[in-house]
Specification:
Structural class: mainly beta
Radius of gyration: 20 Å
Shape: flat
Number of helices: 0
Oligomer: single chain
Number of strands: 6
Order of helices and strands: EEEEEE
Distance between the termini: 38 Å
Largest sheet: 3 strands, antiparallel
Helix content: under 10%
């Protein structure tokens, strides 16, 4: 499973927009458009779907971030005992 991609778009007025579900983007004249491709790659082709557009002149920065696959991790129920050992309880008492 490929990691989910999020684009952070910083605009001239300081606002930050997060674009989720897009694989890539391309400047199209006065607009920069974000696309989602069913092929799960950054290439824009005839099957790509537009996700959103911004005026290119208003964009100050675009940052592409990949989220970790899965997104879940174990969280200890108790603090570290000082030796790097954590207590992962199963919820069965004690």
């Amino acid at each position: 499973m490929e990691p989910a991609v999020v684009f952070e778009v910083v605009l001239a007025d300081g606002a930050t927009e997060l674009i989720q579900g897009a694989n890539g983007y391309v400047p199209e004249g006065p607009l920069t458009t974000f696309f989602k491709s069913p092929r799960s790659r950054a290439a824009i082709d005839s099957r790509a779907e537009r996700v959103g557009s911004f005026r290119t002149a208003d964009i100050r920065r675009i940052v592409r971030q990949e989220n970790e696959a899965g997104g879940l991790r174990a969280v200890p129920d108790a603090v570290d005992d000082g030796y790097g050992h954590y207590d992962f309880r199963t919820g069965t008492g004690t």
